[in-house]
Specification:
Oligomer: heterodimer
Radius of gyration of chain A: 30 Å
Structural class of chain B: alpha/beta
Order of helices and strands of chain A: HHEEHEEHEEHEEEHEEHEHHHHH
Number of domains of chain B: 1
Largest sheet of chain B: 6 strands, mixed
CATH class of chain B: Alpha Beta
Helix content of chain A: 55-70%
Number of domains of chain A: 2
GO molecular function, one term (chain B): transmembrane transporter activity
Structural class of chain A: alpha+beta
Domain ABC transporter (chain B): 6-233
Number of helices of chain B: 7
Strand content of chain B: 25-35%
Strand content of chain A: 15-25%
Keywords (chain B): ATP-binding, Nucleotide-binding, Transport
Shape of chain B: globular
Protein name (chain B): ABC transporter ATP-binding protein
Number of strands of chain B: 10
Largest sheet of chain A: 10 strands, mixed
Number of strands of chain A: 12
CATH superfamily of chain B: P-loop containing nucleotide triphosphate hydrolases
Strand order of the largest sheet of chain B: 6-7-8-3-9-10
């Protein structure tokens, strides 16, 4: 029967082609949006696994809203169960950009704490920061690739200081001493500089953006998080669990985008299959009546019409995956030169796309197939 | 006498035309033996097409029954009907009704597909039938590339594909010229001489004149049922 299905599709090349194209566009949207969502999920997963052992301590008023003096780190460290605590100063590398989609970030940290911060991350070129380093920086792999830098090169960093109503931009040249390996986390977009240099450069006095508290090995991070909040004044804490929940909440948006792209694809692609199949079925009214007169079973006719719809779905899916894959590949290539990667086409996503497009075809073929199969042979043969 | 291959018993069909019942068939009975070549004639509205669709399970009677090869086909359910159509009946239509996208060969082949005949057997049988119809060289042509007579011969080959108990031909010569008509009637007669039961519905008396038995219908009833001794054809 398969050759008959193929014959029917190739008989109506333009129409079938347009339908397939419609589905392909839908699947392309699924791949691109899905690829973005997958990439964010993966990055956050990786980032969390790198920092999951630490509790974040923020000023009470909110992130960046109030000043958090680095002396608070000593208070936090005094809480039982805290192995270590240190401040981190964070700022956007390019003060003009909002740094929303994987923008590069300057991270100020005491050189002696950087191994605790970066965990097992290694440098592939040069070295980590050392105590006493001045305007020196260690770069994440994406930053290094974006600016095409090696250890020993210079990197200009701008800072924007608000003074009364105007702001003054300062530029300093930092010497790159090391490049980190690719981690798949936000550290790839990080520029690590010594904390004291960062505080001076950004004119932040002795304040930090947040404090990281490392729990003792046998201490429960959730309990400790609450304990720190009770023991230290004017701060609030984010336990690893709270952080994960918060990130998951923001990821819901991306998942929603993916789902709406898929739903849109379903509506557009599905309707075009329904339309094409209904046309094809009504054109072949006589043919189906004749097949029934020849003794075709209902299931034969269902198989032929649903098969036709399913095949268009599969073809559309394959075209969409190829098109979407190519688009994502070139976009990633382009974005990589600008320091970010936005899309990950995972096997899971590919499987979803192909199953989705096939189901789309089959489901939209259901009603036209039912119409074809229910046709009375007598009526169909009288139909001119 | 052998058991008849087709047996029609008290067949009636009433249509409702609005609120007025129309008796398309009333109480028709007759038997057909294997290998018979008969025609049903009558003016339009005499019930002959209705009758044909009853035998061919394309429509259901109001009353009465039809037996083909000992099976009461009028009792068949919707799910049994396709099997009976495949195994007992071959249709030949006035408008040929070939599938336009398929070649002559594929049009014959498809009938056997529905009967789940294995591919090698199908190929062999389709080629054999088309050769018998004199279409050996036209097998791979689409219906649009064939003449009316050729198309009808493909349709006859298709009707015979599954060795049906009976071939039902509805105005098989309605759309061809007289020469082709004679050729088709001769072909059908030749098949009947080899044991194939053939029933033609026609209003063309020059077709019925060449069949062995003529059933004349009028107002849904059999008016006459005669054995036609002449039956022979003189090719001019």
């Amino acid at each position: 029967m398969f050759d008959l299905i193929l014959k029917n599709i190739t008989q109506r090349k333009l129409r079938a082609g347009l339908t397939v194209f419609g589905i392909a566009l839908g699947i392309l949207a699924v791949i691109v949006m899905g690829g973005m969502s997958e990439h964010f999920n993966m990055t956050f997963d990786k980032s969390i696994s790198l920092t999951a052992d630490k509790i974040r301590v923020f000023p009470e008023i909110g992130f960046g809203g109030g000043d958090l003096n680095n002396s608070k780190a000593r208070e936090v460290k005094r809480v039982t169960g805290v192995a270590d605590a240190y401040g981190i100063l964070q700022a956007a590398l390019d003060p003009e950009s909002l740094g929303f989609f994987g923008g590069d970030v300057v991270i100020g940290v005491q050189p002696e704490k950087q191994l605790s911060l970066l965990k097992d991350t290694k440098v592939t070129d040069g070295r980590f920061l050392a105590v006493g380093d001045g305007y020196r920086a260690v770069l994440g792999s994406s930053v290094a690739r974006e600016f095409n830098l090696k250890a020993g090169d210079g990197l200009q960093i701008k800072s924007k200081r608000v003074q009364r109503a105007s702001s003054i931009t300062h530029t300093r040249n930092f010497t790159v001493v090391g490049i980190m390996e690719y981690t798949g986390s936000f550290f790839d977009n990080g520029v690590i500089i010594p904390l004291d240099v960062a505080q001076k450069f950004y004119d932040r006095g002795d304040t930090v953006s947040f404090i990281l508290a490392v729990p003792d090995p046998d201490t429960d991070a959730e309990d400790l998080s609450k304990r720190i909040e009770l023991n230290v004044e004017k701060i609030k804490t984010f336990s690893p669990e709270q952080l994960r929940k918060q990130i998951e909440q923001s990821l819901v948006i991306f998942t929603l985008i993916t789902i709406s792209a898929a739903v849109l694809a379903a509506i557009i692609g599905g309707l075009s299959v329904v339309n094409t199949m209904l046309m094809s079925v009504s054109e072949r009214t006589k043919e189906f009546g004749l097949m029934k007169a020849m003794g075709a079973e209902t299931k034969d006719i269902l198989f032929m019409t649903m098969g036709e719809a399913a095949l268009m779905g599969i073809l559309g899916g394959i075209c969409g995956i190829i098109g979407g894959g190519a688009l994502v590949y070139y976009l990633n290539d382009y974005l990589a030169s600008r320091g970010t990667v936005l899309f990950s086409v995972t096997p899971r996503l590919l499987a979803i796309a192909i199953v989705f497009s096939t189901l789309l075809g089959v489901l939209s073929g259901l009603y036209p197939a039912y119409r074809a199969a229910k046709m009375s042979p007598m009526e169909a043969l009288r139909y001119e | 006498m052998d058991e008849p291959i087709l047996s029609v018993r008290n067949l009636s069909k009433t249509y409702m035309q609005g609120k007025i019942p129309v008796h398309a068939l009333s109480d028709v009975s007759f038997d057909v033996q294997k290998g018979e070549f008969l025609s049903i004639i009558g003016p339009s509205g005499s019930g002959k097409s209705t009758f044909l669709s009853m035998i061919g399970l394309l429509d259901r009677p109001t009353k009465g029954s039809v037996f083909i090869d000992g099976v009461e086909v009028t009792k068949a359910t919707d799910s049994e009907a396709p099997k009976i159509r495949r195994e007992k009946i071959g249709f030949v239509f006035q408008h040929f009704n070939l599938i336009p996208t398929l070649s002559a060969f594929e049009n014959v082949d498809i009938a056997m597909r529905f009967a789940r005949v294995p591919k090698s057997k199908r190929k062999e049988r389709a080629a054999e039938l088309l050769t018998r119809m004199g279409l050996r060289d036209r097998m791979n042509h689409k219906p649009s590339e064939l003449s009316g007579g050729e198309q009808q011969r493909v349709a006859i080959a298709r009707a015979m594909a599954n060795n049906p108990a009976i071939i039902l031909a509805d105005e098989p010569t309605g759309e061809v010229d007289t020469k082709t008509r004679d050729m088709i009637v001769e072909l059908l007669r030749g098949l009947s001489e080899k044991g194939q039961t053939i029933l033609i519905v026609t209003h063309d008396t020059s077709v019925s004149a060449r069949t062995r038995r003529i059933i004349k219908m009028l107002d849904g009833k059999i008016e006459s049922d005669t054995i036609n001794a002449v039956g022979e054809i003189k090719t001019a």
